[in-house]
Amino acid sequence: MTKRTKGDLLLDTGVYLFLIALGMIMLLPLASVFSKSVSEEWAITSGKVGILPVGFQLDTLMRVISSSMFIRAFCISAGVTLIGTLISILMTALTAYPLSKRNLPGISFCMVLFIFTMLFSGGLIPNYLLMRQLHLVDNLWVLILPGMISVFNMLVIKSYYESLPEALEESARIDGAKTYTILFRIILPLSMPVIATIALFYAVGYWNDYFGPMIYINDTALKTLQLYLQDVVMDANSANLTNKSIDDLMNMSPEGIRAATVVASTVPILLVYPFMQKYFIKGVLIGSVKG
Amino acid sequence: MGTGATELNRKSRAAAARSRSASKWRIAWRNRDYYVLLIPGLLFLLLFKYTPLYGVLIAFQDFNIFDGIRGSEWVGLEQFHKLVRSEEFGQVFMNTLLISVYKIVLLFPVPILIALVLNEVRLMFFKRTIQTIIYLPHFLSWVIISGLFVTILSTSGGLVNNIIQWFGGEPVSFFVSNQYFRSLVVFTAGWKEVGWNAIVFIAAIAGIDQEQYEAASIDGAGRIRRMLHISLPGILPTVVLMFILRLGSVLDAGTEQILTMYNPVVYETADVIGTFVYRIGLGKMDYSFSTAVGLFNSVVGFILIVSGNYISRKLLKRGIW
């Protein structure tokens, strides 16, 4: 029998208070921006909206989602994310396979080649000049090709392959299966949990990427969602800079528009989040526990 | 007999070496399918990772985009002299170190605390809910997070300024304040990642042998003592490893984060090496100087990471490679 002492009670109280406070800090900014996006305009401009919405309207959100700029940016981001994730996961899963055969001659040298790129890079300008030479500036492929393989992700998949029992491959080989058959019929299907996790990380990476598009995409017709969002967010911010209330400049509340744009760009992540949660914890553990 | 044996040994070793190198090729040829699979990955490395390393040469030139690397004038270390003398770079370097050190000192312990505290929660439902909430910000982009904080810190009806005014204070424009900007950067970085960074420590606690807890409680240790004397020492190797890795990236103060948040008013306190390279290189088109700054950053970062890994292998017998 464990008996609860005073110290235990104190500890429990502290634990729950700490975690509730932490949860609140994480949720408040989200709640606040959501409330602003659905509140009545007069309430936003007079600063009455705190955590809960004042009044309720979906006009601002509808106006934001139906703007042609938003739709185009959203579709570009969705396309880049979809195609980028497919290419990345294929390249990563295939490249990791030979690298997991440590005893093959030359493989450890190839590993060094890959790992070195994690530690040392040419930097921004040499990369930019290369993309220019390859005519990839203002071309959406620039958002996918240079990041096709993340070496870190590849190491995670590789260590998963290495954890599979060797007897599986041996017996398949005795049955006459060749390398590719073994890879596609046995190894990849068995690795689906880790592949799904890594695919998820790639997808989130492509969807959230801001630095890449900012550097390589100048054409307004090719703006991704993050670039578009930054324009909306920082526009209002630069109005702050001049210390003039932007409300005087426009008759609709820019605060509301900004909040609605943030909400509209967050929704896709929030929708897939519950589904991905069961995967990513597994994936992180695979990645981090390896010594 | 001694000499004869070594003679024989040497001969057979030489023969073995010869046949080993021949059999190496044979092994490789028999497994050629594996090497074929490697080709796309190696081509990717060559084109997108190693070609830019050749481009680093422009740090030693007065690079002109029309003449290219072959046609541009070589100036030796002049760009690096400029870098050392530049007051602006000194400022940027200090900003980078300050922001990074603040992030480490203030944020590194938090995930450890979160993991220890979560381990004490017995209500599974509550535990799962809190975990779901604190992991979530990790999946939001910096642009969205900037948007969130611009909204709640806004001087016209933002949540935080409303509260400040309730208490009779003056509203603060956090995003254009040299006084508060660094705190804003550190706080938002913490908001995004502390929950996520706790996962590693949560996993480490889960790996501690349960018998230790049982033994301790039979010996009369309360929960606080078990937390301090079993959980904490149990995750110490993980803590040290994560800390060393974190130190390795001390020159990366969060380029993308700061790019989405800052503006010319706060360059003085917020410009870090990453944003500086971007501003000078692509903004002012000073390619050579910007590449020199980038190269400096890469070299120092490389030394830090490699020595961090070396220390961790010595100390903990494990590292990242």
Automatic annotation (TrEMBL), chain A:
It is found in: Cell membrane. Keywords: Cell membrane, Membrane, Transmembrane, Transmembrane helix, Transport. Its main location: membrane. The keyword Iron does not apply. Residues 74-276 form the ABC transmembrane type-1 domain. GO terms for biological process: transmembrane transport. The chain crosses the membrane at residues 9-31, 69-94, 106-128, 140-161, 182-204, 257-276. The keyword Transport applies. GO terms for cellular component: plasma membrane. It is a multi-pass membrane protein. Pfam families: BPD_transp_1 (PF00528). PANTHER family: ABC TRANSPORTER PERMEASE PROTEIN MG189-RELATED-RELATED (PTHR43744), POLYGALACTURONAN_RHAMNOGALACTURONAN TRANSPORT SYSTEM PERMEASE PROTEIN YTCP (PTHR43744:SF9). Belongs to the binding-protein-dependent transport system permease family. This is Sugar ABC transporter permease. It comes from Paenibacillus graminis.
TrEMBL record, chain B:
GO terms for cellular component: plasma membrane. InterPro entries: MetI-like (IPR000515), MetI-like_sf (IPR035906). This is Protein lplB. The chain crosses the membrane at residues 34-60, 92-118, 139-164, 184-206, 227-245, 287-311. Residues 93-308 form the ABC transmembrane type-1 domain. GO terms for biological process: transmembrane transport. It comes from Paenibacillus graminis. Belongs to the binding-protein-dependent transport system permease family. It is found in: Cell membrane; Membrane. Pfam families: BPD_transp_1 (PF00528). It comes from the Bacteria. It is a multi-pass membrane protein. PROSITE patterns: ABC_TM1 (PS50928). Keywords: Membrane, Transmembrane, Transmembrane helix, Transport. Its main location: membrane.
